């Protein structure tokens, strides 16, 4: 009798110790270890489900993409990217100064000895004008680079364009408006018995502020 009671007591002590040292998880216990990301942020394995390019971007099955900048377009399949042979243009290597492989197909960079612009040919590094306002140059790569002249703001309210001039000029010199009247710059002009007007100085001249400064002497 005593032995049975001792055995029962020993079993209860063992069960108590096990329950203290280990807590069985429940369905409502969603606590995770510190530093463990939530399940929503764990990346899944994309093998057989998608394809990756060199930047890590994921493409769906059936999508067309380029694995890298210098590769040809591929189709994403369950077995990985399938890349058909492209139809690249043919060229004679004797015409190429160099061959570049920056894309799907190689590119032939021809050696240029001249430029063509407006039906006229020019030697490399030759400078020419297409108009009074446009200056051009034949670059070493066979392309023409042009720059349009930057005209200063005319210091008058009635500029004119001459056939041989690129920028507008002031035929009668600098001037400005005194109300609706045009007066010359550089001197004071009496516009009526009591009012004297003067154009702004050249340092203060702008097209949007072309009115004279007028003073009334209160007569």
Automatic annotation (TrEMBL):
Q: Does the keyword Signal apply?
A: yes
Its protein name is von Willebrand factor C domain containing 2 like
Q: Where is the signal peptide?
A: 1-23
Organism, by scientific name, is: Eptatretus burgeri (Inshore hagfish)
User: What do the Gene Ontology cellular component annotations say?
Assistant: AMPA glutamate receptor complex; extracellular space; synapse
Instruction: Name the InterPro entries for this protein.
Output: VWC2/VWC2L, VWC2L_C, VWC2L_N, VWF_dom
Record's keyword annotation contains Protein biosynthesis: no
Read off the SUPFAM superfamilies from this record.
FnI-like domain
Q: Which GO terms describe its biological process?
A: negative regulation of BMP signaling pathway
Domain VWFC residues, every copy = 113-171
SMART domains on file: VWC
Name of a matching Pfam family:
VWC2L_2nd
Keyword annotations from UniProtKB, A to Z: Repeat, Secreted, Signal, Synapse
Where does it localize?
Secreted; Synapse
